[in-house]
Design a protein that fits this description.
The chain has about 160 residues and is of the alpha+beta class. It has 4 helices and 7 strands, in the order βαβαβαββββα.
Length: about 160
Amino acid sequence: AQYPLTIFDNSFERSTFLPAGCQGKIDTDALAAALGRITGKWRVLAGRLQDSRLFFNLNDWGQTKTWQVTVPLPEDYRTHTFSTSDVPLSTYVTIPLGTSSENNSLTCWHVTHFPPREPGEVPYSCVGFARSHGIFDGIGAASVMRPLSAEMRGEEWDVPPPLSE
């Protein structure tokens, strides 16, 4: 199925937002497993944002801009990107990140752990959730975070209904 984005979505197609962290050290194995279960149940999260001009109108490259989310994808596609480290991501890559034409997943997650500053203090973990704002605005991001919280607590959750025209 292909879900075209609206004209409003096109204005945010490549902007990305990163929420953040919590007190304590997050169990990254449990988080990665929960993300795998979510994308296994809610397959649209395993889709890819694609420029439909690549498929339908190569001669009109500069004239018509249409983005779509294509699902389902082959089972061997990575349903999300997940990484973790004890140092900020900027240690490995130049910030801000540039645009990419790679076939990236719709959600990218990175956990950075920060040790206590002084003895007796607790460590912190920062969870980065990168996504296209054209697909997940604040409400859309919350619709991903609710199932993640439920999965981490071992609770049931319902997959949102498919989009309709």
